[in-house]
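A reminder from the course coordinator: this example appears on the midterm review sheet, so study it carefully.

Given structure:
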């Protein structure tokens, strides 16, 4: 008799995500200038493809510490409105702080599950999600909810990571951590950074929900730093998923794993500094 594979527990996963980002949100904000250098080009392309105009109403799902909500707010102007939502109560508080610091009174924040929006139908012109959809257990459910909140002819724009072979910044550390922490392979249906990155997958989920005028573009997002050591500092603090993978390890063991990761990442150093490949897929579609 074949051994039954463990099933993926979406509720447990979401609770872990909420706790992780409540804990790691401050680090994500602290490294925002670095993260904006890495992902800014993908953010700008998302906003361009969304066709955001002054006066529009924009919903940002999985907004994190404020991007792309803040950039969208600058585009809609004082007559527009941006609602930044995230499953983590702590991190949306940081997003509101960022908006207030920039004088963007048109930004509001609410803690909310991206797969179950407490929002009325047809109430937004645009829905954005940067680097969040691939971490949702049910991406089709999420997109169906986002489409519901869009007005007729409204636009959705998302960014996800492509495939592991084009994202060594994450794939290489994850492979080392998975081996050292003796983690089992992901179970079917488990979300993750590269779960929507294969050819045609993002287009397919948008089609399933009924979106039209779908376009998906590959956008290079090389992760640059002064050195491998600096990159690992960012990864340790801002990419909480790595730490979550080895949360069960004693501290000396996890330190040893990070040392191995840093040694491996040195292969991306050169006299000009550190640069490791990354690639996003930026997709947009119309209701």
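Designed residues:
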């Amino acid at each position: 008799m074949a051994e039954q594979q463990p099933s993926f527990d979406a509720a447990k996963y979401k609770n872990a995500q909420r706790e992780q980002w409540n804990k790691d949100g401050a680090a994500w904000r602290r490294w925002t200038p670095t993260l904006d250098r890495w992902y800014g080009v993908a953010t700008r392309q998302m906003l361009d493809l969304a066709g955001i105009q002054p006066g529009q109403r924009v919903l940002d799902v999985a907004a994190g510490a404020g991007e792309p909500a803040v950039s969208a707010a600058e585009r809609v102007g004082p007559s527009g409105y941006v609602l930044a939502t995230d499953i983590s109560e702590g991190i949306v508080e940081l997003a509101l702080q960022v908006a207030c610091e920039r004088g963007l009174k048109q930004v509001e924040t609410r803690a909310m599950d991206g797969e179950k929006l407490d929002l009325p139908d047809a109430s937004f012109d645009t829905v954005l999600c940067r680097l969040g959809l691939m971490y949702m257990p049910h991406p089709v459910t999420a997109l169906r909810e986002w489409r519901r909140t869009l007005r007729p002819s409204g636009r959705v724009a998302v960014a996800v990571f492509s495939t592991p072979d084009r994202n060594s910044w994450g794939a290489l550390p994850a492979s080392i951590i998975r081996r050292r922490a003796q983690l089992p392979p992901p179970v079917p249906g488990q979300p993750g950074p590269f779960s929507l990155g294969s050819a045609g997958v993002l287009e397919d989920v948008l089609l399933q929900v009924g979106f039209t005028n779908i376009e998906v573009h590959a956008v290079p997002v090389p992760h640059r730093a002064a050195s491998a050591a600096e990159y690992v500092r960012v990864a340790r603090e801002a990419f909480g998923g790595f730490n979550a993978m080895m949360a069960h390890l004693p501290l000396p063991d996890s330190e040893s794993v990070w040392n191995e990761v840093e040694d491996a990442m040195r292969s991306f150093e050169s006299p000009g500094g550190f640069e490791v490949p990354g690639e996003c897929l930026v997709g947009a579609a119309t209701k």
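The longest strand covers residues 150-161. The radius of gyration is 19 Å.
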